Amino acid sequence: MKLFYESDSSIFKNENALSLEYLPPEMPERETQLKELAAALNSSAKGKRGRNILVTGPTGTGKTSCVKYVLNQLTEFSQTPIAIYINCWNFTTSNAVLSEIAERLKLPLPRRGIAFDEIFKRIKEYLTVSNKVLVVVLDEVDRLLANNSTEILYYLSRGDELASGKISVIVVSNDDELPAKLDDRIRSSLLESRVKFEKYTAFQLKKILSERAKLAFFSSAITEEVVALCAANAAKQGGDARVGISLLYQAGLNAEREGSNKVLIKHIKLALEEVKNETDFIARHFDSLSDTEKRIVNLLLTGPLTSGEIYEKLSDLGISNRMLQFYITKLEESGMVTSQEIEVKPKGRTKLISLRK
Ligand SMILES: Nc1ncnc2c1ncn2[C@@H]1O[C@H](COP(=O)(O)OP(=O)(O)O)[C@@H](O)[C@H]1O
Ligand SMILES: [Mg+2]
Protein backbone atom coordinates (compact mmCIF):
# COMPACT_ATOMS: atom_id res chain seq x y z
CA MET A 1 0.00 0.00 0.00
CA LYS A 2 1.33 3.35 -1.00
CA LEU A 3 0.90 5.84 1.82
CA PHE A 4 2.70 9.00 0.76
CA TYR A 5 2.23 11.04 -2.37
CA GLU A 6 4.02 13.96 -3.92
CA SER A 7 1.79 16.86 -3.06
CA ASP A 8 3.25 19.16 -5.68
CA SER A 9 1.55 17.51 -8.64
CA SER A 10 -0.93 19.79 -10.33
CA ILE A 11 -2.40 16.82 -12.20
CA PHE A 12 -2.92 13.91 -9.80
CA LYS A 13 -5.03 14.27 -6.71
CA ASN A 14 -4.67 10.56 -5.98
CA GLU A 15 -2.38 8.73 -8.38
CA ASN A 16 -3.10 5.47 -6.56
CA ALA A 17 -6.64 5.44 -7.99
CA LEU A 18 -5.10 4.60 -11.37
CA SER A 19 -2.98 1.71 -10.13
CA LEU A 20 -3.92 -1.81 -11.17
CA GLU A 21 -4.63 -3.09 -7.66
CA TYR A 22 -6.95 -0.22 -6.79
CA LEU A 23 -10.46 -1.34 -5.86
CA PRO A 24 -12.93 1.43 -6.78
CA PRO A 25 -15.64 2.39 -4.27
CA GLU A 26 -18.34 1.78 -6.90
CA MET A 27 -18.57 -0.40 -10.00
CA PRO A 28 -20.72 1.49 -12.52
CA GLU A 29 -22.30 -0.55 -15.34
CA ARG A 30 -22.03 -3.77 -13.35
CA GLU A 31 -25.13 -3.53 -11.17
CA THR A 32 -26.65 -6.66 -12.74
CA GLN A 33 -23.59 -8.81 -12.14
CA LEU A 34 -23.13 -7.49 -8.60
CA LYS A 35 -26.74 -8.35 -7.77
CA GLU A 36 -26.43 -11.81 -9.31
CA LEU A 37 -23.28 -12.52 -7.31
CA ALA A 38 -24.87 -11.24 -4.11
CA ALA A 39 -28.02 -13.29 -4.65
CA ALA A 40 -25.98 -16.47 -5.06
CA LEU A 41 -24.07 -15.75 -1.85
CA ASN A 42 -26.99 -14.51 0.17
CA SER A 43 -27.55 -17.66 2.22
CA SER A 44 -23.92 -17.75 3.35
CA ALA A 45 -24.59 -14.60 5.37
CA LYS A 46 -27.05 -16.69 7.35
CA GLY A 47 -24.73 -19.60 7.92
CA LYS A 48 -25.89 -21.77 5.04
CA ARG A 49 -23.78 -22.67 2.09
CA GLY A 50 -23.96 -20.20 -0.83
CA ARG A 51 -24.48 -21.34 -4.42
CA ASN A 52 -21.43 -22.14 -6.52
CA ILE A 53 -20.85 -19.56 -9.22
CA LEU A 54 -19.07 -19.67 -12.54
CA VAL A 55 -17.96 -16.19 -13.64
CA THR A 56 -16.68 -15.76 -17.19
CA GLY A 57 -15.80 -12.91 -19.53
CA PRO A 58 -12.88 -11.31 -21.39
CA THR A 59 -10.06 -9.51 -19.55
CA GLY A 60 -10.69 -6.05 -18.22
CA THR A 61 -14.45 -6.48 -17.92
CA GLY A 62 -14.46 -6.14 -14.13
CA LYS A 63 -14.70 -9.79 -13.01
CA THR A 64 -12.02 -9.68 -10.33
CA SER A 65 -13.08 -6.28 -9.02
CA CYS A 66 -16.78 -7.21 -8.85
CA VAL A 67 -16.11 -10.46 -7.01
CA LYS A 68 -13.87 -8.69 -4.49
CA TYR A 69 -16.42 -5.93 -4.11
CA VAL A 70 -19.18 -8.40 -3.27
CA LEU A 71 -17.01 -10.39 -0.86
CA ASN A 72 -16.02 -7.23 0.99
CA GLN A 73 -19.66 -6.32 1.48
CA LEU A 74 -20.59 -9.85 2.44
CA THR A 75 -17.97 -10.10 5.19
CA GLU A 76 -18.79 -6.61 6.45
CA PHE A 77 -22.44 -7.56 6.61
CA SER A 78 -22.01 -10.86 8.41
CA GLN A 79 -19.34 -12.56 10.52
CA THR A 80 -20.48 -16.05 9.55
CA PRO A 81 -18.93 -16.46 6.10
CA ILE A 82 -15.17 -16.64 5.69
CA ALA A 83 -14.12 -15.46 2.23
CA ILE A 84 -10.85 -16.63 0.73
CA TYR A 85 -9.67 -15.13 -2.55
CA ILE A 86 -7.05 -17.09 -4.46
CA ASN A 87 -5.43 -16.11 -7.73
CA CYS A 88 -4.40 -19.32 -9.48
CA TRP A 89 -1.46 -17.56 -11.11
CA ASN A 90 0.09 -17.69 -7.64
CA PHE A 91 -1.18 -21.15 -6.66
CA THR A 92 -1.03 -23.21 -9.80
CA THR A 93 -2.03 -26.70 -8.62
CA SER A 94 -4.90 -28.19 -6.64
CA ASN A 95 -2.54 -29.05 -3.82
CA ALA A 96 -1.11 -25.55 -3.64
CA VAL A 97 -4.63 -24.09 -3.55
CA LEU A 98 -5.82 -26.42 -0.81
CA SER A 99 -2.74 -25.84 1.35
CA GLU A 100 -3.22 -22.11 0.92
CA ILE A 101 -6.84 -22.37 2.08
CA ALA A 102 -5.72 -24.30 5.16
CA GLU A 103 -3.06 -21.73 5.82
CA ARG A 104 -5.46 -18.80 5.54
CA LEU A 105 -7.74 -20.58 8.01
CA LYS A 106 -4.66 -20.87 10.23
CA LEU A 107 -4.97 -24.64 10.40
CA PRO A 108 -1.66 -26.15 11.41
CA LEU A 109 -0.47 -28.67 8.82
CA PRO A 110 2.58 -30.87 9.11
CA ARG A 111 5.29 -29.78 6.71
CA ARG A 112 5.33 -32.95 4.69
CA GLY A 113 3.29 -35.93 3.69
CA ILE A 114 -0.27 -34.92 4.34
CA ALA A 115 -2.81 -36.19 1.86
CA PHE A 116 -5.25 -34.00 -0.01
CA ASP A 117 -8.25 -35.77 1.58
CA GLU A 118 -6.84 -35.26 5.02
CA ILE A 119 -6.37 -31.50 4.55
CA PHE A 120 -9.90 -31.26 3.22
CA LYS A 121 -11.21 -33.18 6.22
CA ARG A 122 -9.51 -30.80 8.61
CA ILE A 123 -11.00 -27.81 6.82
CA LYS A 124 -14.47 -29.34 7.16
CA GLU A 125 -13.93 -30.05 10.85
CA TYR A 126 -12.80 -26.51 11.42
CA LEU A 127 -15.92 -25.14 9.72
CA THR A 128 -18.21 -27.37 11.76
CA VAL A 129 -16.58 -26.54 15.08
CA SER A 130 -16.41 -22.81 14.42
CA ASN A 131 -19.90 -22.70 12.90
CA LYS A 132 -18.68 -20.83 9.83
CA VAL A 133 -19.28 -21.21 6.12
CA LEU A 134 -16.54 -20.84 3.57
CA VAL A 135 -16.65 -19.00 0.23
CA VAL A 136 -13.58 -19.67 -1.89
CA VAL A 137 -12.79 -17.64 -5.01
CA LEU A 138 -10.55 -19.26 -7.58
CA ASP A 139 -9.63 -16.43 -9.94
CA GLU A 140 -7.78 -17.11 -13.22
CA VAL A 141 -8.79 -20.73 -12.88
CA ASP A 142 -7.58 -21.38 -16.43
CA ARG A 143 -4.16 -21.85 -14.82
CA LEU A 144 -5.37 -24.98 -13.01
CA LEU A 145 -6.81 -26.38 -16.22
CA ALA A 146 -3.58 -25.66 -18.07
CA ASN A 147 -1.79 -27.67 -15.40
CA ASN A 148 -4.36 -30.44 -15.56
CA SER A 149 -4.89 -30.00 -11.87
CA THR A 150 -8.63 -29.61 -11.34
CA GLU A 151 -9.51 -31.94 -8.48
CA ILE A 152 -9.77 -28.97 -6.14
CA LEU A 153 -12.75 -27.86 -8.26
CA TYR A 154 -14.42 -31.15 -7.58
CA TYR A 155 -13.81 -30.96 -3.85
CA LEU A 156 -14.91 -27.37 -3.45
CA SER A 157 -17.93 -27.46 -5.76
CA ARG A 158 -19.30 -30.64 -4.21
CA GLY A 159 -19.23 -28.85 -0.88
CA ASP A 160 -22.76 -29.98 -0.21
CA GLU A 161 -22.03 -33.67 -0.09
CA LEU A 162 -18.41 -33.56 0.88
CA ALA A 163 -18.49 -30.82 3.47
CA SER A 164 -21.94 -31.08 4.95
CA GLY A 165 -23.10 -27.85 3.37
CA LYS A 166 -20.26 -25.62 4.47
CA ILE A 167 -18.38 -24.64 1.33
CA SER A 168 -19.17 -22.84 -1.90
CA VAL A 169 -16.84 -21.78 -4.66
CA ILE A 170 -16.70 -18.91 -7.14
CA VAL A 171 -14.68 -19.86 -10.18
CA VAL A 172 -13.50 -17.00 -12.41
CA SER A 173 -12.24 -17.51 -15.95
CA ASN A 174 -11.49 -15.48 -19.09
CA ASP A 175 -12.89 -18.31 -21.16
CA ASP A 176 -16.60 -18.29 -22.02
CA GLU A 177 -16.20 -21.87 -23.25
CA LEU A 178 -14.93 -23.10 -19.89
CA PRO A 179 -17.98 -25.28 -19.07
CA ALA A 180 -17.30 -27.44 -22.13
CA LYS A 181 -13.76 -28.05 -20.89
CA LEU A 182 -14.79 -29.30 -17.47
CA ASP A 183 -15.45 -32.79 -16.30
CA ASP A 184 -19.19 -33.64 -16.16
CA ARG A 185 -19.14 -34.13 -12.40
CA ILE A 186 -17.50 -30.74 -11.86
CA ARG A 187 -19.57 -28.87 -14.45
CA SER A 188 -22.98 -29.68 -13.06
CA SER A 189 -22.16 -28.68 -9.49
CA LEU A 190 -20.21 -25.61 -10.49
CA LEU A 191 -22.99 -24.23 -12.65
CA GLU A 192 -25.46 -23.62 -9.83
CA SER A 193 -25.10 -20.01 -10.86
CA ARG A 194 -23.57 -18.41 -13.91
CA VAL A 195 -22.55 -14.77 -14.16
CA LYS A 196 -21.35 -13.44 -17.50
CA PHE A 197 -19.33 -10.31 -18.13
CA GLU A 198 -19.39 -8.76 -21.60
CA LYS A 199 -16.89 -6.39 -23.18
CA TYR A 200 -17.66 -2.77 -22.35
CA THR A 201 -18.98 -0.41 -25.01
CA ALA A 202 -17.39 3.01 -25.52
CA PHE A 203 -20.37 4.55 -23.75
CA GLN A 204 -19.95 2.34 -20.67
CA LEU A 205 -16.20 2.92 -20.61
CA LYS A 206 -16.73 6.65 -20.66
CA LYS A 207 -18.83 6.42 -17.54
CA ILE A 208 -16.34 4.15 -15.76
CA LEU A 209 -13.35 6.25 -16.74
CA SER A 210 -14.95 9.54 -15.79
CA GLU A 211 -15.71 8.19 -12.30
CA ARG A 212 -12.12 7.07 -12.00
CA ALA A 213 -10.79 10.34 -13.37
CA LYS A 214 -12.72 12.24 -10.67
CA LEU A 215 -10.91 10.25 -8.00
CA ALA A 216 -7.47 10.45 -9.57
CA PHE A 217 -7.17 13.91 -11.11
CA PHE A 218 -7.75 17.44 -9.89
CA SER A 219 -10.93 18.63 -11.59
CA SER A 220 -9.00 21.46 -13.22
CA ALA A 221 -6.62 18.96 -14.83
CA ILE A 222 -9.02 16.82 -16.81
CA THR A 223 -11.78 17.33 -19.40
CA GLU A 224 -14.64 15.19 -20.67
CA GLU A 225 -13.10 15.21 -24.10
CA VAL A 226 -9.90 13.59 -22.84
CA VAL A 227 -11.85 10.91 -20.97
CA ALA A 228 -13.98 10.21 -24.05
CA LEU A 229 -10.89 9.70 -26.21
CA CYS A 230 -9.49 7.17 -23.72
CA ALA A 231 -12.85 5.40 -23.63
CA ALA A 232 -13.08 5.25 -27.42
CA ASN A 233 -9.63 3.71 -27.66
CA ALA A 234 -10.27 1.20 -24.91
CA ALA A 235 -13.48 0.18 -26.68
CA LYS A 236 -11.52 -0.34 -29.88
CA GLN A 237 -8.95 -2.45 -28.03
CA GLY A 238 -11.36 -5.11 -26.82
CA GLY A 239 -13.69 -3.18 -24.50
CA ASP A 240 -11.12 -3.58 -21.74
CA ALA A 241 -11.42 -1.09 -18.85
CA ARG A 242 -7.81 -1.78 -17.87
CA VAL A 243 -6.64 -0.35 -21.22
CA GLY A 244 -8.67 2.81 -20.62
CA ILE A 245 -7.31 3.28 -17.12
CA SER A 246 -3.72 2.74 -18.27
CA LEU A 247 -4.22 5.31 -21.02
CA LEU A 248 -5.54 7.86 -18.57
CA TYR A 249 -2.63 7.21 -16.24
CA GLN A 250 0.00 7.38 -18.96
CA ALA A 251 -1.53 10.57 -20.36
CA GLY A 252 -1.48 12.12 -16.87
CA LEU A 253 2.19 11.24 -16.51
CA ASN A 254 2.92 12.75 -19.92
CA ALA A 255 1.17 15.98 -18.93
CA GLU A 256 3.10 16.09 -15.68
CA ARG A 257 6.41 15.47 -17.41
CA GLU A 258 5.72 18.39 -19.74
CA GLY A 259 4.92 20.67 -16.84
CA SER A 260 1.37 21.10 -18.12
CA ASN A 261 -1.33 21.53 -15.47
CA LYS A 262 -3.96 19.92 -17.72
CA VAL A 263 -4.15 16.59 -19.50
CA LEU A 264 -4.56 17.43 -23.18
CA ILE A 265 -5.52 15.42 -26.26
CA LYS A 266 -1.87 15.40 -27.33
CA HIS A 267 -0.94 13.64 -24.09
CA ILE A 268 -3.39 10.84 -24.90
CA LYS A 269 -2.06 10.58 -28.45
CA LEU A 270 1.45 10.29 -27.08
CA ALA A 271 0.29 7.62 -24.62
CA LEU A 272 -1.31 5.68 -27.48
CA GLU A 273 1.90 5.85 -29.45
CA GLU A 274 3.95 4.69 -26.48
CA VAL A 275 1.74 1.65 -26.08
CA LYS A 276 1.94 0.93 -29.80
CA ASN A 277 5.72 1.39 -29.91
CA GLU A 278 6.16 -1.17 -27.21
CA THR A 279 4.25 -3.83 -29.14
CA ASP A 280 6.08 -2.88 -32.33
CA PHE A 281 9.31 -3.18 -30.40
CA ILE A 282 8.91 -6.93 -30.10
CA ALA A 283 8.08 -7.27 -33.79
CA ARG A 284 11.10 -5.20 -34.79
CA HIS A 285 13.59 -7.01 -32.60
CA PHE A 286 12.36 -10.52 -33.11
CA ASP A 287 14.63 -11.18 -36.10
CA SER A 288 17.74 -10.31 -34.15
CA LEU A 289 17.10 -13.01 -31.57
CA SER A 290 18.76 -16.39 -31.39
CA ASP A 291 16.60 -19.45 -32.07
CA THR A 292 16.32 -20.26 -28.38
CA GLU A 293 15.28 -16.71 -27.58
CA LYS A 294 12.67 -16.84 -30.33
CA ARG A 295 11.27 -20.03 -28.84
CA ILE A 296 11.00 -18.36 -25.43
CA VAL A 297 9.27 -15.28 -26.87
CA ASN A 298 6.88 -17.49 -28.83
CA LEU A 299 5.96 -19.41 -25.71
CA LEU A 300 5.24 -16.16 -23.90
CA LEU A 301 2.92 -14.87 -26.62
CA THR A 302 0.07 -16.84 -25.08
CA GLY A 303 0.64 -15.38 -21.62
CA PRO A 304 3.16 -15.23 -18.77
CA LEU A 305 4.96 -18.40 -17.66
CA THR A 306 7.17 -19.28 -14.73
CA SER A 307 10.78 -20.02 -15.50
CA GLY A 308 10.12 -23.63 -14.49
CA GLU A 309 7.36 -23.92 -17.08
CA ILE A 310 9.57 -22.47 -19.79
CA TYR A 311 12.28 -24.92 -18.80
CA GLU A 312 9.89 -27.86 -19.18
CA LYS A 313 8.56 -26.67 -22.51
CA LEU A 314 12.09 -26.31 -23.87
CA SER A 315 13.26 -29.67 -22.56
CA ASP A 316 13.81 -30.91 -26.14
CA LEU A 317 16.69 -28.42 -26.46
CA GLY A 318 18.55 -30.04 -23.58
CA ILE A 319 19.73 -26.70 -22.17
CA SER A 320 20.54 -26.40 -18.49
CA ASN A 321 18.45 -24.33 -16.15
CA ARG A 322 21.39 -21.97 -15.71
CA MET A 323 21.59 -21.46 -19.46
CA LEU A 324 17.87 -20.73 -19.54
CA GLN A 325 18.27 -18.11 -16.79
CA PHE A 326 21.01 -16.57 -18.91
CA TYR A 327 18.65 -16.26 -21.90
CA ILE A 328 15.88 -14.84 -19.76
CA THR A 329 18.22 -12.23 -18.28
CA LYS A 330 19.37 -11.34 -21.78
CA LEU A 331 15.78 -10.90 -22.98
CA GLU A 332 15.09 -8.82 -19.90
CA GLU A 333 18.06 -6.59 -20.57
CA SER A 334 16.95 -6.07 -24.16
CA GLY A 335 13.55 -4.99 -22.86
CA MET A 336 11.60 -7.82 -24.51
CA VAL A 337 10.44 -9.49 -21.32
CA THR A 338 9.91 -8.56 -17.73
CA SER A 339 10.06 -10.84 -14.74
CA GLN A 340 8.41 -10.74 -11.40
CA GLU A 341 9.03 -12.79 -8.27
CA ILE A 342 5.96 -14.72 -7.23
CA GLU A 343 5.06 -17.08 -4.41
CA VAL A 344 4.34 -20.69 -5.37
CA LYS A 345 3.15 -22.97 -2.64
CA PRO A 346 4.67 -25.18 -1.44
CA LYS A 347 7.92 -24.69 -3.29
CA GLY A 348 8.68 -21.10 -2.39
CA ARG A 349 9.43 -18.28 -4.77
CA THR A 350 9.83 -18.39 -8.49
CA LYS A 351 10.04 -15.96 -11.38
CA LEU A 352 7.05 -15.20 -13.57
CA ILE A 353 8.18 -14.10 -17.01
CA SER A 354 5.98 -12.03 -19.32
CA LEU A 355 6.43 -10.26 -22.61
CA ARG A 356 6.84 -6.56 -22.18
CA LYS A 357 3.50 -4.99 -23.00
N1 LIG B 1 -17.47 -1.33 -13.86
C1 LIG B 1 -16.29 -0.87 -13.45
N2 LIG B 1 -16.22 0.22 -12.67
C2 LIG B 1 -15.04 0.71 -12.24
N3 LIG B 1 -13.85 0.17 -12.56
C3 LIG B 1 -13.84 -0.94 -13.33
C4 LIG B 1 -15.07 -1.51 -13.81
N4 LIG B 1 -14.76 -2.59 -14.56
C5 LIG B 1 -13.42 -2.68 -14.54
N5 LIG B 1 -12.87 -1.71 -13.81
C6 LIG B 1 -11.45 -1.48 -13.60
O1 LIG B 1 -10.75 -2.04 -14.70
C7 LIG B 1 -9.63 -2.79 -14.30
C8 LIG B 1 -9.79 -4.22 -14.73
O2 LIG B 1 -10.85 -4.83 -14.01
P1 LIG B 1 -10.74 -6.32 -13.45
O3 LIG B 1 -11.77 -6.48 -12.42
O4 LIG B 1 -9.33 -6.62 -13.07
O5 LIG B 1 -11.14 -7.12 -14.78
P2 LIG B 1 -11.02 -8.68 -15.10
O6 LIG B 1 -10.84 -9.41 -13.81
O7 LIG B 1 -12.29 -8.99 -15.81
O8 LIG B 1 -9.83 -8.80 -16.02
C9 LIG B 1 -9.53 -2.63 -12.80
O9 LIG B 1 -8.60 -1.61 -12.54
C10 LIG B 1 -10.93 -2.21 -12.36
O10 LIG B 1 -10.86 -1.35 -11.26
MG1 LIG C 1 -9.25 -10.66 -13.25
Structure description:
The structure is a single chain. By secondary structure, the protein is α/β, with parallel strands linked by helices. It has three domains: about 30-195, 3-Layer(aba) Sandwich (Rossmann fold), CATH 3.40.50.300; about 200-285, Orthogonal Bundle (Helicase, Ruva Protein, domain 3), CATH 1.10.8; about 290-355, Winged helix-like DNA-binding domain superfamily/Winged helix DNA-binding domain (Arc Repressor Mutant, subunit A, Orthogonal Bundle), CATH 1.10.10. It is built from 16 helices and eight strands. It has helices spanning about 30-40, 65-75, 95-105, 115-130, 140-145, 150-155, 160, 180, 185-190, 200-215, 225-235, 240-255, 265-285, 290-300, 305-315, 320-335, and strands at about 55, 80-85, 135-140, 165-175, 195, 305, 335-345, 350-355. The longest helix is centred in the C-terminal third of the chain and has 21 residues, at about 265-285. Adenosine-5'-diphosphate binds near residues 27, 60, 242 and 245.
Q: Which keywords apply here?
A:
357 residues; alpha/beta; Rossmann fold; Helicase, Ruva Protein, domain 3; Arc Repressor Mutant, subunit A; 3 domains; five-stranded parallel sheet; three-stranded antiparallel sheet; 16 helices; globular; binds adenosine-5'-diphosphate; binds magnesium ion
